[in-house]
Here is the input.
Amino acid sequence: MDAQPQTKLQQLQEAILAGNVPQIVLATISSALDMRASDIHIEPERSTTRVRYRVDGVLRRIVEYPPNMHPAVVSRIKIMSNLKIDEQRIPQDGRTAVTTKDNREMDLRVSSFPTVNGEKVVMRIQDKSRKIPTLEELGLEGNSMKYLKKGLEAPNGIILTSGPTGSGKTTTLYACLNILNTPDVNILTIEDPVEIQMEGLNQSQVHPDINYTFANGLRTALRQDPDIIMVGEIRDRETMDTAIESSLTGHLVFSTIHTNSAVETLTRIANMGVPAFLMTATINLIIAQRLVRKVCANCRQEVQVPPEVLERVKRALKFLHADEAANIDPAALSGLKFYEGKGCDQCGKSGYFGRMGIYEVMWMNNRLRRLILDHAASMEIEKAAMESGMVGLEQAGIIKALKGETTLEEVYSVARESEVEEEDAMAQTAKVVQTAPAVQIASVAAAVNGNGQKS
Here is the structure.
């Protein structure tokens, strides 16, 4: 671990020994920032109170302090975030702004939650001064990048990102809006909350307690002469209907939705009661995404993969589209080498440093539209999408792992195994062999044969 985080942790431990509550809270936040934490968990237990940071999506135990100090620590945090100090029976939510010594502005979203041992506090850290990443920096490449750029060039329609909470959906939308953010367009966003303030955007935060919801905000946005609208989340039929209306009246609409895959997003929208003809007329692009930890470049080493995992990898590569296979180094495809970090001071002995996205991008072509209008099964739609060039989450993750950017363990912790019939997989392999260059034929053949060795 770097010297600076170590120094901040030492200051935190000294503040605990001295019983200095304001210093404990300040040092907890300061050391979390230096360790790149996204969340701070302060959790009372029977005999101690533990402090954990979520770093690269994984919780790390940092320090403990005596339980008799916990009420004072909670009260200090509540004062900072304008919460009721005397109310300990119900959950509370608040926020506060913090400026670090190096003038970085942080927004802290604070949540208290009553437990049998006292109030648990979670602080979500939002770096207001952080730079919007590019699509390349997020991890988009190949067919996924091609389809997303095609979607951004469309004059109207709906672009949806899906995935679980904390999978980077909003960041992906910000990266897209950053590309489209020019002086000649009017971009409106309706968010909950506004996570990053961007110059050139008209950003608004919803307030459901006064009936300012996503649906109401979107309907009002249409009277603001917008070109592009971003809605934080589509949660119900009303918001979906308004997004469809916005799209049909010539606007480009971005939003997020909670589903597990690109194809399942269509099922979710259909379950809301949206007719198939409206789905096909308005939806341009659906992105499913996950975040995986990046292998630490300082301690990366090649590893042996268990035979059953290697077989799973080969099955996934069997139906990789020819366009995508052509973008991969033939040596990587034929050798099937994978890596992991052994752990060093730089990555805190975890073997990982930072995170990146893996993406499944489904472009709505006419073949998919016909299947949706015919009420085809989601498996059939997914098969058609992959034959058209879509790269599944599993395949996208394996490509990153082959490049040594992440581990197979990380990939399979977030991506399910692609379920394509064996005959479909073999047919896709034949298509790859027919269309790929000669050097590519050898690499794909090696990837799908029984031993995964170079031919």
Q: What stands out?
A: The two ends are 43 Å apart (CA to CA).
